[in-house]
Amino acid sequence: MPTTDPRVDAYIAKSAEFAQPILAHLRAVVHAACPEVEETMKWSFPHFMYKGMMCSMAAFKAHCAFNFWKAELMMARDDINREAMGHFGRIAAVKDLPAKKVLTGYIRQAMKLNDDGVSAPARAKPATPRPLQIPDDLHAALDAVPAARRHFDAFTPGKQREYADWLNEAKTETTRARRREQAVEWIAEGKSRNWKYEKC
C-alpha cells in the first residue's frame, strides 16, 4: 500500500479537470517504480522524496509539468524539453508523457543517484546578468499607486525582472493590461510575481 500525503490528494482534486488524470498517472508511476517514496508539498506543489529530493509534478491553467531534481545527470541535453517548468515540456494529456516504461527507467535512475549520494549539479549562472529594463507602462502604473512604487523599488532586481518579463510576454494588449493591473495590486501588497509558490 503506497504511503500518500492527503495534501497531494487535495492538490489533484482542486486541479483543472484535464490535469487530474495526468497527475494521478504520474503519481501511480512514481509509487510503482519506487515503493519507498514519500510524498510532500514544497513550494505549493507535490514532490516525491526518496533519500532526498527526487521528482515533482505541478498543474497550471493549461498544462502540467513533471520535473526530476537531477535531470541533467539522467537525461541527454537534447531530451530535456525546456518549454515549461519541468523536463517534459507542456503536458496537456497523459499521451504527452513518455511511455510508462520510459518514466519508470528515469525514476529508477533518480533513485540510484540518491542511493549513491550524488548531489544535484550546481546551476550555472550567466556570465553577465541581463540588463534590467522596466517597461514604461509599468513605471507609469506604479507611479499612480505610491504603495506599489515603494514596494517595487525595494524589490531585488530579480523580483523586478519577473514582473517586467511577465508583462513583456503578453501576446495581446488586453492581456498586457490585465497583467499590469494584477501586478500593481500584488506589488502594492509587497508580493513578488511568484508569491503563491514561495515558502511560507
UniProtKB/TrEMBL annotation:
InterPro entries given in the database record: YdhG-like
Any Pfam family: OmdA
Superkingdom field: Bacteria
Location of the YdhG-like domain: 20-111
Name by which UniProt lists this protein: Uncharacterized conserved protein YdeI, YjbR/CyaY-like superfamily, DUF1801 family
